[in-house]
Amino acid sequence: MRGLDPTRTAVVGVHWQHEIVSPGGFFGPYFAEQVARHRVASYAAQVAASVRAGGGLVVYTRVAYRPGYPDLIPNTPSHAMYPERQAFLDGAPKTRIIDELAPQAGDVVITTVRLGAFFGTELDTVLRARGVQTLLFTGVATNFAVMNAVFEAVNHGYQTMVVSDACTAATDDIHRVSLETMGQLGEVVTTAEVADRLAR
């Protein structure tokens, strides 16, 4: 396996926020148990630490809307429920990144209002300003926001690597099939493999 140039590498942590991965969050009933059972947050933290140690960039994406939801397009069943549940309101505790993955000095937090990490955000600009060529992905859910981010990254010209043990979905089967799909676009690696390749 080839090594990774840390200075040309970034990890994108997708939706590591309480609304999605904590039991009391809007999507907690779908993902919280899987996140805890597979310890994916701890693996994602290890990936972020390896990238930081090598001088790479750590990015987090999170969903958050302005008060009154003027930036919400309620064109999916879930999106339509956000105002009623007061979910994903910017500034609310549940929109924060979980403590285990709390952003550190030098990390970048990208706020999105759609599924994609790139759509309508400054992510591509941030990455190109740092000369990033390879993107590692961790996060939830493998078959929704993570896969969407990978598709967008490929379309923007980046090489992609999905960290299999640092992502999860509502079920193990969904997670596995999603990894197989993304493996046709880039690489699927483990947390340990990332650390090894960054150290080469």
For the largest beta-sheet, the strand count, sense and barrel status come to:
6 strands, parallel
Number of domains: 1
N-to-C span: 10 Å
The overall pLDDT, averaged over residues, is 97
Low-confidence stretches: none
Number of helices: 8
CATH class annotation = Alpha Beta
Which value, in Å, is the CA radius of gyration? 16 Å
Helical residues, percent: 25-40%
What order do the SSEs take from the amino end to the carboxyl end, as H and E? Answer: EHHHEHEHEHEHEH
Strand coverage percent: 15-25%
CATH architecture: 3-Layer(aba) Sandwich
CATH overall fold name: Rossmann fold
- State the CATH superfamily name: Isochorismatase-like
Strand arrangement, largest sheet? 3-2-1-4-5-6
Going by helix content, strand content and strand pairing, the class is alpha/beta
Tertiary shape? globular
Describe the structure.
By secondary structure, this protein is an alpha/beta fold. It has a single domain, classed as Isochorismatase-like (Rossmann fold). The chain has 8 helices and 6 strands. The protein has helices spanning 18-21, 28-38, 40-53, 77-85, 123-129, 142-155, 172-182, 191-199, and strands spanning 9-14, 57-63, 108-112, 134-140, 159-168, 187-189. Helix 3 packs parallel to helix 8 (191-199) and helix 6 packs parallel to helix 7 (172-182). The mean pLDDT is 97.
